[in-house]
Design brief:
The chain has four helices and no strands. The radius of gyration is 16 Å and the shape is elongated. Helix 2 packs antiparallel against helix 3. The relative contact order is 0.21. The protein has one domain. By secondary structure, the protein is mostly helical. InterPro entries: EMC6-arch (IPR043941). The chain crosses the membrane at residues 12-37, 49-67, 79-98.
């Protein structure tokens, strides 16, 4: 127990925190994309919403730092994981919103 308190978060809590934040960021990015760009068929043909996803990926690192996750120890695998999970949840959520025609 003493080693966990001196390092910060345990490995399990760190993994759950990173995964939860990445998934929530992806869903919120999809909602922001739907609000800003709409859910009509013309919104599908543009790649500009990917900038929103990139912004949400970058915005996660200060939040993770505030939650005491040691982001300086992130390797390429961790960074790709955060980006992929955010993109995957954005893609799924955005597809559902575009398919159902949700309007905000």
């Amino acid at each position: 127990m003493a080693t966990e308190s001196s390092r910060g978060l345990s490995d399990h809590v760190r993994g759950v925190t990173v995964t939860t934040l990445a998934c929530l960021a992806g869903v919120i990015a999809a909602v922001v994309t739907a609000i800003v760009f709409g859910t009509d068929p013309s919104a599908v043909s543009t790649t500009t919403p990917l900038a929103v996803v990139a912004a949400f990926v970058i915005a996660q690192y200060p939040i993770l730092y505030a939650l005491r996750v040691d982001v300086s120890a992130f390797g390429i695998k961790d960074n790709l994981y955060v980006a992929f999970m955010t993109f995957a949840l954005w893609f799924l959520s955005n597809t559902i919103m575009l398919s159902t025609g949700v309007s905000f």
